[in-house]
């Protein structure tokens, strides 16, 4: 960040009075720009023994397969966000959603809230952010072509345990950029 969102003057990275970490503070009006993690809401949507996956038409991980998920918007609930992403990415109508997992990624300041639900309709098709979408049986999942570790982990948990329990884990990324999974419960 270079310029103040309030007045356009340059900002400096410094610790504000009564704070304990660096923030971008406006040199002119003193406005403090707090930056906080983003929620990413997504869903494992199933149709009997098949799981909906989307092939990404956007960076990062263009061409890789993912669960429908995306950044939460203002003025919506986490479940509404997950259902909206399923509609946007796969034209998929989600049935009632239950919380499946909470996964923190402090290295990119993101928190994933993953849901599970059944598809309300078998009709799915690629939305703007997808090259194609598909319903995959257990032995058809493209494990080597998944976009993100959290997608891999969510699918493994679902296939092993099914729905019904809320999983809690976090991921770290080492200096070699290798992502490591830490299961909490
Ligand atoms: Zn300012």
In CATH terms, what is the fold-level topology of the largest domain?
Nucleoside Triphosphate Pyrophosphohydrolase
Briefly, what CATH class of the largest domain?
Alpha Beta
Helix fraction bin: 10-25%
- Helical element count? 2
Proportion of strand residues: 35-45%
Total number of β-strand segments? 12
Q: How many structural domains can be distinguished in the coordinates?
A: 2
Shape: elongated
- Kindly report the name of the CATH homologous superfamily of the largest domain: Nucleoside Triphosphate Pyrophosphohydrolase
Are any ligands bound, and if so which? Answer: zinc ion
Question: How would you spell out the order of helices and strands?
Answer: EEEEEEEHEEEHEE
Radius of gyration: 19 Å
Q: Report low-confidence residues grouped into runs of 5 or more.
A: none
Which class do the helix and strand fractions yield?
Answer: mainly beta
Q: Could you tell me how far the N terminus lies from the C terminus, measured between alpha carbons in angstroms?
A: 37 Å
How would you characterize the largest beta sheet?
A: 9 strands, mixed
Give average pLDDT, whole number. Answer: 97
CATH architecture of the largest domain: Alpha-Beta Complex
Q: How does this model look, in words?
A:
With 185 residues, the chain is mainly beta. It folds into two domains: 1-35, Ubiquitin Ligase Nedd4, Chain: W, CATH 2.20.70; 38-183, Nucleoside Triphosphate Pyrophosphohydrolase (Alpha-Beta Complex), CATH 3.90.79.10. Helix content is 14%, strand content 37%. It is built from two helices and twelve strands. The protein has helices at residues 78-90, 149-161, and strands spanning 11-14, 23-26, 32-33, 38-47, 50-56, 65-66, 69-71, 98-105, 110-118, 130-136, 167-173, 179-183. The two termini are 37 Å apart. The site of zinc ion has 8 residues, from loops.
């Amino acid at each position: 960040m270079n310029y103040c969102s309030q007045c356009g003057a340059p900002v400096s990275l410094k610790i504000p009075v009564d704070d304990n970490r660096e923030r971008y503070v406006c040199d002119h009006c003193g406005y403090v720009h707090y930056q906080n993690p983003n929620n990413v809401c997504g869903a494992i949507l199933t149709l009997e023994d098949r799981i909906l996956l989307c092939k990404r038409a956007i960076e990062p991980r263009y061409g890789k397969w993912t669960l429908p998920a995306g950044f939460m918007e203002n003025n919506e609930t986490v479940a509404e966000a997950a259902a909206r992403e399923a509609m946007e990415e796969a034209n998929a109508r989600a049935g009632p959603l239950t919380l499946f997992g909470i996964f923190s990624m402090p290295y990119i300041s993101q928190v994933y809230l993953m849901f599970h639900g059944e598809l309300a309709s078998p009709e799915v098709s690629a939305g703007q952010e997808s090259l194609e979408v598909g319903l995959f049986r257990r032995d058809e999942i493209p494990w080597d072509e998944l976009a993100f570790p959290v997608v891999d982990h969510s699918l493994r948990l679902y296939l092993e345990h099914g729905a019904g329990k809320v999983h809690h884990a976090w991921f770290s990324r080492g200096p070699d950029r290798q992502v490591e999974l830490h299961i909490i419960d």
